[in-house]
Amino acid sequence: MDTIYLTDIETTCLLGIYEHEKISKQKIVIDLALELDLKEAGLSDNFEHTVCYGEVSKLIQEVANSKGFELIEHLCELSCKTLLERFERLQGVEIRIYKPEIKEEGFSGNASVKITRKRS
Fold this sequence. Notes:
Radius of gyration: 16 Å
CATH topology: GTP Cyclohydrolase I, domain 2
Number of strands: 4
CATH class: Alpha Beta
CATH superfamily: GTP cyclohydrolase I, C-terminal domain/NADPH-dependent 7-cyano-7-deazaguanine reductase, N-terminal domain
CATH architecture: 2-Layer Sandwich
Number of helices: 4
Distance between the termini: 15 Å
Strand order of the largest sheet: 1-2-3-4
Strand content: 25-35%
Low-confidence stretches: none
Number of domains: 1
């Protein structure tokens, strides 16, 4: 299986368990690895034989802004599910979402979650 990597997609969303995180959007960074067969696109040089990077990025940002999330894990799951439903060519999705600006007492650094989901 072939892979398209889309990295450093930035957006903001409501994400977290603390009250201040539920009312103030914060930055997240998303990396994607999209698994699909790219042979036809590679031989034909035809855009219709692959997925549009812009459409993928826009959809991921729409998911992130569709509601408030308590857990990065939930946002990852919903993002994978949505991508696999929308893009029939995708056979699998790996997503890593970073939350780089955590404002929590006793924690310095960032957090990220990575999951991989395959088409069943």
